[in-house]
Amino acid sequence: MTLKDKRILLIIAGGIAAYKSLDLIRRLRERGAVVIPVMTRAAEEFVTQLAVGALAAHKVHTDLFSREDEIDVGHIRLARDCDLVLVAPATADLMGKMANGLANDLASTILLATDRPVLMAPAMNPKMWSNLAVSRNASQLLSDGVRCIGPMRGEMAEGGEAGTGRMAEPLEIVAEVEKLLDTASKPLAGRKAIVTSGPTHEPIDPVRYIANRSSGTQGHAIAAALARAGADVTLVSGPVTLADPAGVKVIHIERAEEMRDAVLAELPADIAVMVAAVADWRVASASGEKIKKSADGSVPILQFAENPDILKTVGHHEKRPKLVIGFAAETNDIETNARAKLDRKGADLIVANDVSPETGIMGGKRNTVTIVSRDGIERWPEMSKDDVAQKLVAVIAEKLLG
Ligand code: CTP
Predict the structure, then answer these.
(1) What is the CA radius of gyration of the chain?
(2) N or C, where is the chain less crowded by C-beta within 10 Å?
(3) Ligand 1 center to residue 342 CA distance, Å?
């Protein structure tokens, strides 16, 4: 009952995805939430008040000018007497009103009057979603602090068309609601996790170093998701520009050898997720002084030494965590390479991702991964790095707790 007694004001706008809102109501109520439904006029073209009211076991509010409702609760109280306002589906029309502060019906008036967090789950035709006006409104809403889940890629409910526009699935929306209200169950409470993230910097001399394009976005998201699931998390991070995730112990390092030392000092642990893009080589003897240009035009020749493989060390360590997860950044033969890596590094799971330049994954916000274990492989669709983190934590909890 992760949402026990949480009051969710659910605004259903007029789109075909409104049929999924019926299931959403059930899922929210299964978790103990009280669902207060508000329907727009257009929503009633897709689902009936009777169905919505019956599933919610609550009066359905529809009318801004209902004398009875205004005496009873009033739209201002309705807007505030809840823990969260959830708009699902959020149509292009309602998003347009929200972004521009219009209020000509009950739903839009509530959205102006509320002082509660607002989560929207957009759903519309892919062409509409990519329309410039809709994009503008969506970015405006995000910068106004409205949270957003989806839309997802896939087939549209009306069939025949695919693209980004599908409403997130009810369970994905529920997970986001739990995250926002911080009521998600804590399956990893009492478990310790070590996560590595970001690049390493290998010095050439005091001012120069060798690095790679890793931003740390995926590793940091995994550390944050593990912490939300209740784990006691240590994040060993190379140099990144990201903020330290909330509720996580962060050890900042620069070089691969420092990363290895920090990771080993944190053992024993239950879970290790090695996401860092560790430099495979360091300069064998980094200069203690800045290397100067020589007068005769000769250039320095760098000799490299192999860095410790941290994942492999942890995977074969006497204090090996129960679950060891590695990442495989590949540009070709992704699955074959990931399988080989599984054995070589002593990992239970390899998260393989295609980092060919055209994917924009390195440094980007989205990721397409394949999970490779001894039980087989599972391809996940493209999603945000936060969603990859959340899904991976669900896999970790299942593997660890059975
Ligand atoms: N890794 C590590 N220490 C290293 C190199 C890699 O812990 N010195 C970890 C990464 O964090 C990642 C996994 O190993 O979880 C895969 O790294 P990758 O660089 O893709 O594989 P390599 O072992 O370097 O193999 P190759 O470069 O041949 O693909």
Answers:
(1) 25
(2) C
(3) 11
Residues linked to residue 122 through DSSP beta bridges, in sequence order: 90
Residue nearest to atom 12 of ligand 1 (CA): 327
What is the structure's pLDDT at 2? 82
CB 64 within 8 A of CB 109: yes
Q: Given the structure tokens 């390195």, which residue do they identify?
A: 362
- The question of whether 212 is a catalytic residue gets the answer yes
Residue 134 beta carbon below 6 angstroms from any ligand 1 atom: no
d(CA 72, CA 108): 20
pLDDT of residue 123: 97
Contact 157, 19 (CB under 8 A): yes
Domains for the chain: give ranges and CATH numbers.
7-181 (3.40.50.1950), 192-401 (3.40.50.10300)
206 preceded by a cis bond (ω within 30 of 0)? no
Residue nearest to atom 24 of ligand 1 (CA): 280
CA atoms within 13 A on the CB side of 72: 10
Rounded-to-integer distance, Cα 402 and Cα 397, Å: 8
- Specify the ligand 1 atom closest to the Cα of 325: 15
Predicted TM-score (pTM) of this structure: 0.66
Local structure of residue 359 (DSSP, 8 states): G
Question: 3-state class of 379 per DSSP?
Answer: strand
